[in-house]
Amino acid sequence: MAPVKVKKICCIGAGYVGGPTCAVIALKCPQIQVTIVDLNQARIDAWNSPDFDLPIYEPGLVDVVKASRGRNLFFSTDVDKAIQEAELIFVSVNTPTKKTGVGAGFGADLHYVESATRRIAAVAQNSKIVVEKSTVPCRTAESMRTILEANCKPGCRFDILSNPEFLAEGTAIQDLFSPDRVLIGSLQTQEGKDACGALASVYANWVPNGRILTVGLWSSELSKLAANAMLAQRISSINALSAICEATGANIDEVSHAVGYDSRVGSKFLRASVGFGGSCFQKDILNLVYLSESLHLPEVAAYWRQVVELNEYQKSRFSKTVVDTLFNTITGKHITVLGFAFKADTGDTRESPAISLIRDFLAERAYVTIYDPKVDAEQIWQDLAEANPNLPLELIKKQVTLAPSALEACKNKEAVVIATEWKEFKEIDWQVVYDNMTKPAFVFDGRLILDAEKLRKIGFRVKVIGRGSQ
Ligand SMILES: NC(=O)c1ccc[n+]([C@@H]2O[C@H](COP(=O)([O-])OP(=O)(O)OC[C@H]3O[C@@H](n4cnc5c(N)ncnc54)[C@H](O)[C@@H]3O)[C@@H](O)[C@H]2O)c1
Fold it and tell me: Residue 447: what pLDDT?
C-alpha cells in the first residue's frame, strides 16, 4: 500500500497545544485543510471571533491565525464531520492529574483521550492515521489501538503514532516555527513506518529533515515525560542551591552563571525563582512517579517525586520569607502581587506559583492586591476559589483587590511581591512606586528581574531569591 498523502487534518482539542500547533501546520502547509475541533463552544467561538480575540494569549499567534483562518484553517464544534473528512487526526485533549480513584494525585486522567478515541472509532468510515499529541503515560497508544480496533467499521484500519509536543507557552509560535526536534513514534512494522512517513512529510514542509526524529512508540511517549522531568529537575536543582545561597551569602545568579558556563551543563533553565508552574511539569513528573511505582521501581519514583517536593518547598519558603521580613506578621497588612500567570508572555495560570503565594497570604489574613497584564479577572477569582476551598468567594473578595496597572496596585501598600517575570515590571518607575508606598517599603523579587541595588538606593528594603541578607 502506498503511503497516505495527507490532504485533510483534524485536530481534536483547541487548547494551548492543539490551537497553536495546528494553526502553524495550516500556515506552513496551505495545500492541507486543517480543522480544529473542540466540545467547548465558547472556546471555538473565541477562535472564530471576528476581531481575533482568541481564547489564549501567545505572542505571534494572532498573525498566524489571521493568515490562514477561512482559507485552509477552520475551527468547529462539529467533531464527527472533521473526523470523517480527515486522513490524519491529532488527539490533543487535556490529560490532567487524576483527582480521585486509583492513582489519584499522580496518574494521568485519560478519560478525555479515551472518549476522543471512542468518537473516532464510532464515526470514522475509512482508515485513519491517529496521532497522540497529548502527553500520555507509556503504552497509551496500545490502549487507543485496542479501543479503535474493537469498535471500528469493517475495512477501516488505524495506524497510531505518538508525536508529543515540545512547545513552551510564551514562545509557542517561535518553537513551532523552528523546533529543536519533531519526534514521531510508530510501530516498527511497514504500516507503522508508512504512517510515520505521512506525518513526517507534513512537518517536512518547514522543518529540516535532520530535526524530524523517528523512534519506537513507547520511546516517544516516554521521551516527552523524560524531557519535562529533566527540565523541571534543573529548576529544582538551582532552587535548592538558592536556599544555600541565602544561608551563606553566596549569590545564585553568580552560581548559575559559573555552573552554566560548563558546556556539559549549559546555561539554559538555570534561573532560580519562586518555583515552576504551568500545566505540564508537575503533572508529567507525577505521572512518571506513578509509572515508576507501577513498575515496582520505588527508588526511581522517590527520585522524581523530590523534584516536585522541592518546588513546593521553594514556594512556601518564599511566603515565609515575606512573613518573616515583615516583622513576623502580615495580618492586616497590604501586599501587592505583581503577576498571576505562571510565566511571562502567557495568560495561562495553571499551577501558577502566584496562586500558592496568595493562598498563604490570605491564610495569614493579609490584604492582597493583584495586577497581571494578561490574566482576566474571572480566571483569577476561579483560581483563588479553587485554591481556598474553605473560604467563600465573597470573603476572598473582601481580602483581595484586582488593580488595573502595576503603579495603581502598589499605591499605599507595605510590600510588593514579583511573582511573574513580565518585562513591564522591570520597566516600572520604581521611584514613583516608592513615593506612593507605606514606609518602610519592601520588595520581594521572586523572579530575579529587578536591580536590587538600584531599589535599595531609592530606599526600598529588598529581598531576592538566592541572595543572603544585605
Ligand atoms: N500547555 C502546554 O504547554 C503543553 C505543552 C506540551 C504538551 N502539552 C500536552 O498537550 C495536551 C493538551 O494540553 P493543553 O494545554 O492544550 O490543554 P487544554 O486544556 O488547553 O486543551 C484541551 C482541549 O481539549 C478539549 N477536549 C477534551 N476532550 C475533548 C473531546 N473528547 N472532544 C473534543 N475536544 C475535547 C477541551 O475542551 C480543551 O479545550 C495535554 O496532554 C498536555 O499535557 C501541553
Answer: 98
Share of the chain above pLDDT 70, in %: 99
Residue 49: enclosing H or E segment and its boundaries?
A: none
| pLDDT tens, position by position, 344-395 | 999 999 999 999 999 999 999 999 999 999 999 999 999 999 999 999 999 9
Residue 331: partners with Cβ closer than 8 Å, 6 or more residues away: 364, 365, 366
User: pTM score > 0.85 for this model?
Assistant: yes
pLDDT at 107: 87
Q: Give the chain's end-to-end CA distance (angstroms, integer).
A: 72
The alpha carbon dihedral of 158, 182, 287, 375 has a sign of: negative
Mean pLDDT of the chain: 96
Q: Which atom of ligand 1 is least distant from the CA of 56?
A: 20
Peptide bond into 154 cis (omega under 30): no
Indicate the DSSP class of residue 467. B
Residue 202 to residue 184: CA distance in whole angstroms: 12
Ligand 1 interacting residues, C-beta cut-off 6 A: 12-18, 37-40, 43, 79, 92-95, 112, 115-116, 134-135, 165, 167, 169, 279-280
Q: Which three cell numbers, joined as nine digits, stand for 35?
A: 480543522
Cα angle 450-451-452, degrees, rounded to a multiple of 5: 95
Give the atom of ligand 1 at the shortest distance from the alpha carbon of 43. 39
Domains identified in the chain and CATH numbers:
8-207 (3.40.50.720), 217-470 (3.40.50.720)
In sequence order, the 6+-apart residues with CB closer than 8 A to the CB of 322 are: 330, 335, 357, 361, 415, 417, 444, 463
Taking the centre of ligand 1 as the mean of its atom positions, its distance from the CA of residue 213, in whole angstroms, is: 23
Does residue 283 contact residue 291 with C-beta atoms inside 8 Å?
A: no
Whole-number Å distance between alpha carbons of 103 and 286: 10
Distance of CA 21 from the midpoint of ligand 1 (Å) = 11
What are 153's three cell numbers? 467499521
Residue 283, all three cell numbers:
503533572
Q: Taking 60 as the threshold, does the pLDDT of residue 1 lie above it? A: no
DSSP assigned state of 440: S
Please give the Cα distance from 403 to 202 (Å, whole number).
45
